[in-house]
Amino acid sequence: MKTPTTSTRVLAVVAVAAAIGATVSVTSLHGAIAGPAAAAPAASATAGPTASVQTVAVHQGPIAELVHAYGSVTFSNTDQTTLSLPYAAQVTRLAVSAGQTVRKGALLAEMTSDPAVTAAFVQAQSTLKAAAEELNRTQSLYDKQLATQSQLAAAQKASGDAQTAAEELKRQGAIPGAQRLVAPFDGVVIAVSAA
Prior knowledge:
There is one protein chain. The chain is α+β, with helices and mostly antiparallel strands. The chain folds into 2 domains: about 1-70, no CATH class; about 85-190, no CATH class. The chain is about 45% helix and about 10% strand. It is built from 4 helices and 5 strands; from the N terminus they run ααβββααββ. The strands form 2 sheets. The protein has a 3-stranded antiparallel beta sheet. Strands 2-5 form a two-stranded antiparallel sheet. Helix 3 (about 115-145) packs antiparallel against helix 4. The radius of gyration is 45 Å and the shape is rod-shaped. Residues about 1-40 have low confidence and may be disordered.
């Protein structure tokens, strides 16, 4: 058990002296003690050690309160966006981690297309080139009346289908080489599920 320090003892003595003074002044008002002259000898008889007191000017200021809270922070579904790729890819570099703040346009990850996706893109480009050449040849033969209208229509359809397939792969971003995934707006990364 800790023993009280000298300042604690002094405060206790001052508090006791203040209590006695309050009692004396209250009882003297009701006439229990015969006037102030009777109170004076009692005060001189209990004179003990004194302490020097230092006063400080009152000032206004903030009081810091420490609050402990437990729970979890969640985000509104309308404020969340999940960025994903519509094709298989290999992540070559992750530039962010969960909890990190990002600005619009900041790099999130670098990746390259999966070899199968790259092969599909190259094949689509090759098919498009062959279909365009076949359409030109069939159109030339048709102009010379050496090909039928159905042969020309079939060549046009093949060229159109090849063009659509190649454009869809481009739109999805499935093109050879490194691709960059960037932040579409300012925000906070809450999860990274790529590895």
